[in-house]
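From the shared-data thread, chain only:
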Amino acid sequence: MGNGHTLDGDAGRQLLDFARVFDHAPVGFCVVDLDLRFVYVNKALAALNGISVEGHIGRTIHDALPQLAPLIERQLRQVAATGEPVIGEVIEGGTDAEPGLMRAFQHTYSAIFGDNKNVIGLSCLVQDVTEQQRAHEALERIEERLELSLDAVSIGTWIWNLEDGTHFWDSRMLEMSGHSLEQHTGIMDDDFVRSLHPDDEARVMAAAQRSLDDDADYNIEYRIYRRDNGELRNMNARAAVIRDANGKAVRMTGIAIDVTEQKRTEAELRRSQALLERRVAERTQTLNDANRRLQEEIVERGIAEAAKRESEAFVNTVIANMVDALITIDTAGNVSSFNQVAEDVFGYGADEVIGQSINMLMPEPDHSRHDKYISDYMDTGRSAIIDVGPRDVLGRHKDGRALNLELAISRTSFGGQPLFIGALRDVSERKRLEELFQVVAENSPNSIILKDLEGRILLVNSLFETWMGVSAHEVVGRTAHDLYPADYADAANAEDRYVVRAGKPNTREWQLEFADGQMHRIVGTKFPVTDSNGAVIGVGTVGMDVTDLRAAESQLLQAQKMEAIGQLTGGIAHDFNNLLAIMMGNLSLLAEDLSSDHEAVDLLEPTMRAIDQAAALTARMLAFSRQQPLEVHLVDANALLRGMQPLIMRSLVEDVEVTFALASDLYNCQVDPGQLEQAILNLAINARDAMPQGGNLRIETANVTLGPDDEQRPMEMVPGDYVMISVSDDGEGIASAELDKIFDPFFTTKPVGEGTGLGLSMVYGFVKQSDGHITVASKLGAGTTFRIHLSADRDQSIASVTQETKVMGAVSSEIILVLEDEKDVQSMVATVLEKQGYQVLLTDNGRACLKTLAENNHVDLLLTDILLPGDMNGQQVADAAVAKRNDLKVLFMSGYPRDAIVDQGRLKPGVELLRKPFSASELARRVRDILDH
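Structure, as tokens:
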């Protein structure tokens, strides 16, 4: 460890001994003195720095690591000056273990304090955060690409919550419909229906209902009036129904596209088509007229029959090849005709094109190839493009932009000369949509698979490749049985066949092992893929990983269940405590009035003992419901556990060995020490019962810091510093099916008659009421570990507290004002106090109490219940009374405290509380104590 280099004092030597724990740790760790000389270096850090452990010791950081020194010396000196830890910036660099590979390391610097609380040294923890950083950057890129894709194609996404009728629309959806951004979470069913064109409303509602009832495909076009300007727009929407575990439809999620411009374009195309047909008909009529005239001339010249055949062949060829645009060229490649649709597609007038080379309508690379096509055809009579059907080509518009075209070329003759006819259709929009679909699929947050009817995979997106750890090249052409376990593949194929047979989508939740070796829950929606004629040609699957969602749902349901049970048990305990207070108080009075030889005296003791046991039971119920009053102090948990050690040892059997592993630098925590002792004792006794043949019980403490991104932090725990107390045994363990119910009240794994089932529920309620967290880990045959996390207080020291025992006594002139709405409790309290010689005034509501106080200026003590009828509770009455009489003493009483005097389970400073039930002597003693202060 040292070559003679160490830290001063016992604390320094202990620290260096403790540091040896890091000798084989996977993270880098070192200790330096205040001159920044290495005192301790573990093997992991030595490997990262490329210097042996011995090569570090005694050298300064600047000497050993000159390149890194400027990055870390300043922060180390800051820690030495302030004593506060610093998490340094992420430093990127290479390591000797992986030359040439850049990795990211996060440095954390902390001060080491000596025996006199001065900083005597510094420590540095080096963690490799490369993978976390890469994953975060990759996620940001994916999210950015998805948003860019959706923005590019103006696809809006929406969610319809069927339970409350609200719609969530993203910004694209809001913009298309004319809503403001502030309305994105407040759009209701009526808002959407009012925006529909009246002629489309019934059809849209019927389509939605069919999807909800029968899982029918929701793919519909409708018209809406924009919210902002009333403009009528055409929309196309698609959606899927999401159901809960019982099959109930809970929401619809979908996309919407504004197709207004597309509709206008289609209408314009139809008008253009009609115009073309009319012009062709007119030109055909003109040709027919010309043919008739030509035939008359040919008859006169003796060639009428040949001219007729050529004319008919030309007209028939034009009609057979007419698509959208018609262009004819001669064997030299020059344009001889250019119809109206061709003018619209290319932006040229016919007079600008006719007589010019067809090359003017093509991009540069295609010029020479086109000339060669014609020459080869004229030489050989064979061509790869003539009379072979439509194919995709590139054209050039007059303004220079490229056009995606579909082209069919055929040959005819006119006037004895060969003529080539080209029929073209502009498919630029189709190409754009195809490319956009590919971008959306690759950036989708869900996996996408397409199979043919034989079950062979045709395509997958990148997310599927990540999930399964394969490339698209490896899976295309393979089947489910080539990728998945047999049972999963059989089920997937059966689902595919059902979708093809039913002709509608089907959604189901699966469990599947990913390439990371973990089981994930996947919601998969399979849907039929059809061709332009509506025939099913394949099956598509969209998969969503809901593993984290299901875990969060499970935690939420458990928390809701525990909260509901807590409210029920708290209310029962409160009412029961009022009844016990009446019984205990009156029996105490009866005991004072009976002589020691009275025959009823023997009955009082067991009755009072039963009331005490009932009060203890209600205290446990209040602990579970988090409504018990806590007397919170700053506590050294280590000192508390050392003080409990004899009690714990006495509570166990001889063959249970107890080990305490207490952290030497444990933080203090804010907690009720009495309740914490009870909780630890409960856990120790449970551990004893789980080891009937003996075993080992280990009680351990540690400091734990949980950050916002810490995977070990449960979502209900706020980030910060915690004191962790664990109680572990190597006993029988708990079955996994019972772990979710282990903290439920009255649930127990012990035989009937050997446990109330309230011990762990009391611990759970106390920890939650203390703003803490408790977890349990167990496995049958391997023991159980309970871990309690309590909020740490690193900055306060514990002050000693002394208490004085007050002697009970009564002064006849003192007046006590009692505020209690339960008549029997009121009567019992008044009897006890009057027997002690006090003057007693009785009220049963807040207004009457304040009025009585105003009329009696000599009241010495206000004794009030917390829960009261009317608009004022006990705390509000006390505040109003003290505001008028600042010397007035106040004592609260209740079966359990409420918000009036409890802030997150902690009594406000200066508040005195008498818990129900209480005996006559306890009431008299507390009243005397407060009056004497």
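The chain is about 40% helix and 25% strand.
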